[in-house]
Write a sequence for this structure.
C-alpha cells in the first residue's frame, strides 16, 4: 500500500490495510515524539489554503510540515475571502501548484477538495470540505482510540451532538466501517445523521442504534465522541438552549459511565464539555491534538513517499 | 554586470545586458526545476511588506525565498493597513531593516518603492508601486516570451486592456525598449497609454501603433498580453459592460490569430480570457506563473551576489 | 543562573545577576551581528500568539527565532480576535502546547501571560500583557542604555509621557530597581505613575522625582525615554492637544540637554519625537530595534538552555 503522489479527499477511499499502515507510520513518529525528523521533507513546500477559518487545523498542519523540515506558504482569513471573490477555485489551484509540492485545502463548499484534486497535478489533502468530510480529523480520532483503548475493534462508540452537519462525524463514520464496532448515534431529532450515511453504514454492515438521550446508553460506551451543537441550526432560540443543556457533558452525566470510558472532542469546545471533566482520566481531547500532529506528519511523509526516512 | 546590493525599483534602470544576465541565471534555475537550491540563501531573511493585497505576488516571492533556503518575515492585509495609518513609511522601513537582509515592498502609492529604497540601507525590490511599475512582473513576462517564442527581438507584441493604469504594462513597455520589437497598443479611448510613456517609447525608437479593436490587428501578433479592465475606471456602467465584452478573448477572437500566437495575462483574470482558451496551445498564463518563480529566485540570489551558487 | 525551561513574565522576577548574564549572551550575539547562529534552535518551533496587534514585536520575535534556525507558528489580527471569542485562553494554550516548544504571548488583559504560563507545560514569554508588563522590551531598553552609555549605574534617567498605562515603562522601572539610578518621571497629572509602582520603587530604594515639565529637568538627564500619549486617555480633546504639544521632543526641547543625552522610544511614534531629532547623535530609537533582536535571540536561546551554542 502506498499514498505516494495520491490525494486524501475522503475516508471512503481508504481500506483497513491503509489505516493500519498509516497508524504504523504514525506510531513511529510518536515513538520519536515528533523530534529529529527535519530530514524527511527538507526540500518540500506545502501550500495551506484555508478558505474557511480554522486556526487549530492550520497550526497542526503547519507544525507537521515544519517538524518534517518542510516549509509552508498560503493564506487564510480575509485574504482567502477576497481570493474567493476575485477568481474561481480552478485558477487559484493552477497558480498555487506552480509554487508548492502539495496542497492542503479547507473550503466551505461540499466537493471543493475533490474538485481541487481534479484540477491539480500535485497531491491535495482535504482539511475540511463543507459539511461533508474532514479525513485527517477522522484519522487522528481513530489513532486516539487505538492508542487509548488498545484496539478499535469490538468497541461501543457513541457519537453525540450535531450528527447531521458535522464533517468530522461523517469522515469518522466512513472510516469506522472498516472496523468491527457498534455505533450509538445520540442527537436531538433535528440533528440526526442523514439517511444517505445511514444507508452506507447498513450496506457496510455496521451495527448502529439511534438515541435521543445520552442517559439511555452512557453505561455501555467505551468511547464518547462529542461535537458542538450550533445555535444557527435552530429556528427557535429556546429549542437550542434546551438541547444545549441536555447534551452537555459533566461529572453528573458521566456518573454512570464505564470507568475507562474515553471522552473525545475535535475542539474548540464552547460549553459542550464542562471543565470539571478535564482533570479526569476520561478526558483525552488534548491528547487528540497531539496525536493529530503525529497523524498529519505521517500523511505528509507518505504522500511524498518519504515514510522510509522515519525510522522507529 | 552585477545586481549585488542593488535595489530593483524600475525596469528603466536595467540595460539589455542586465536582462540577458538575469535570464541566464533564470534559465539555470529552470534547468534545475527550482529544486536543490536551499544552499543559496540559507542565512538570509527577506521582509515581504505588502501594503496592498496581492496573494499571487506574495506567494511567488515567499516560495522563491524558501526554495533558496531563506526565510521570510512581514505583513499584509489589515495589519498592513493599520501600520500605514499608525506611522510613516520611513519609520517602518527603518525598523524592518534592523531585522531583514532585504525588503520586498508592494504599496498603493506611486514613488513608494523608490522612497523606501532611499531610506533603507538594505536592498529593496519593488513588487508593485501604485499604477507606476511592477518590474519583476515585466521580467517574468519577458522571460516567458523568450522561452515560448525563442526570442524577444523581431516579434509583434500586442498589449490589450487598461494601458493607462496598469503598472504591469508600464514596466513591460520600459523593458521592451531594450529589444527590437513592434508594439500594438489596443484599448478603449479612456484607457489609452499615457503621453509620457508614449514619449519615452518614441525617444527610445520603439515602433508602436494604437488600435481601438483587437480584430484590426490580431492576425499580425506573435504575443497578445491581456490585462484586466476595471469597472471603477468608467463613469457609466453601460460603457464598462460594452468595453468589457468587446475586449474579451475567446476562441472566436482568436480565429484569425497566428497558429503560434501566445496569450499572456498577469492574473488573476475575471473574465478577460474565456476558459475555452485554457486548453489551447495559445494559453501560457499558468506557465508565466512558473517562470515568475524562477525569475524571482534569480533576482533574489543576485541581489545577495549568490548567483554563482546556482550551478547549471 | 539559568533561564532553562523557565517562563519570562515580569521583570520583577529577575535579579541583577540575571540581567548581567542575559546581557553577556546578548553581547555575544551582537558580536556576531546575529549571523551564523542557525545551529542554536534548528529543531525548535515557537508559537507567536498575538491576541493584540503589534507588528514590531511580532517581527522582532519572528526574526529572532529564524536567525537561530527555529521555526514559528501562530496567529494575529482578526484570527486572534475570533479565537478569543470562540474559546477560553486555557484551551488555546493547551492546544498550542501540543504543537510548539515555547509560547510567546501578547494579550490585552493584565494577568494573561501569567495565567498562560500557569496552564502551559512549556516555557511562556510575555510579549506584552495589558497595561502591566512587557519584559523583553525592558531588557532591550536596558541593553540599549548599557551599550550607548557604557553603564546603567549612576545615570539619571527621565521617563516622559504616559507613565500610568505604559507597560513598557512599568517593566523598565521594575528592572531599574536592580541598578543604582536616579529616575525622573515626567508626565501630565492625569498620566502620573500609579501609587503601587511608586511604592515598589520606594521599597527598593530607587531615587525618583516627579515633574510636570521636561524643561525643568532636561539638563540633568543622561537618558530620556519617550512614550506615546494616547488621545483616548483624555476626556477633552483640547486637553489632549495641549499635553501632546508640550511633550513633543524637538531640537528646541533638546537645546538645554547634555551633549551625550540619548533619546529612546519603544516605537511606533506618532509625533512624540520630531523627525529633525533623527539625525542627531541623541537619537537611538532605531538602534533600540536592533538591540531588541539581539536580546530576544538571547532570551530564546536561554529558555532552551542553548546559550552555550553561541560562541563569542
Amino acid at each position: 500500500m502506498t499514498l505516494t503522489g495520491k490525494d486524501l479527499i475522503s475516508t471512503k477511499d481508504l481500506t483497513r490495510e491503509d489505516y493500519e499502515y498509516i497508524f504504523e507510520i504514525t506510531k513511529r513518529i510518536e515513538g520519536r515524539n515528533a523530534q529529529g525528523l527535519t530530514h524527511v521533507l527538507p526540500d518540500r513546500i506545502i501550500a495551506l489554503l484555508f478558505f474557511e477559518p480554522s486556526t487549530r487545523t492550520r497550526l497542526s498542519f503547519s507544525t507537521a510540515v515544519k517538524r518534517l523540515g518542510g516549509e509552508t506558504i498560503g493564506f487564510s482569513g480575509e485574504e482567502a475571502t477576497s481570493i474567493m471573490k476575485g477568481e474561481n477555485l480552478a485558477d487559484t489551484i493552477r497558480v498555487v501548484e506552480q509554487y508548492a509540492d502539495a496542497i492542503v485545502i479547507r473550503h466551505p463548499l461540499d466537493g471543493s477538495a475533490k474538485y481541487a484534486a481534479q484540477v491539480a497535478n500535485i497531491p491535495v489533502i482535504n482539511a475540511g470540505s463543507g459539511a461533508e468530510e474532514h479525513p485527517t480529523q477522522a484519522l487522528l480520532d481513530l489513532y486516539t482510540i487505538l492508542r487509548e483503548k488498545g484496539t478499535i475493534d469490538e468497541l461501543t462508540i457513541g457519537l453525540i451532538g450535531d450528527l447531521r452537519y458535522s464533517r468530522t462525524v461523517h469522515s469518522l463514520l466512513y472510516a469506522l466501517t472498516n472496523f468491527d464496532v457498534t455505533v450509538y448515534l445520540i442527537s436531538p431529532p433535528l440533528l440526526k445523521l442523514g439517511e444517505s450515511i445511514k444507508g452506507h453504514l447498513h450496506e457496510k454492515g455496521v451495527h448502529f442504534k439511534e438515541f435521543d438521550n445520552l442517559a439511555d446508553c452512557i453505561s455501555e460506551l467505551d468511547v464518547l465522541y462529542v461535537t458542538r451543537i450550533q445555535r444557527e441550526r435552530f429556528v427557535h432560540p429556546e429549542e437550542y438552549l434546551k438541547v444545549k443543556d441536555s447534551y452537555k457533558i459533566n461529572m453528573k452525566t458521566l456518573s454512570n459511565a464505564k470507568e475507562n470510558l474515553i471522552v473525545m472532542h475535535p475542539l474548540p469546545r464552547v460549553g459542550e464539555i464542562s471543565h470539571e471533566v478535564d482533570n479526569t482520566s476520561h478526558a483525552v481531547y488534548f491528547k487528540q491534538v497531539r496525536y493529530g500532529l503525529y497523524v498529519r506528519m505521517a500523511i505528509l511523509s507518505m504522500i511524498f513517499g518519504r515514510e522510509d526516512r522515519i525510522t522507529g
User: Anything to note?
Assistant: Chain B has ten helices and nine strands. Residues 31 and 312 of chain B are 7 Å apart (CA to CA). The longest helix of chain B spans residues 285-303.
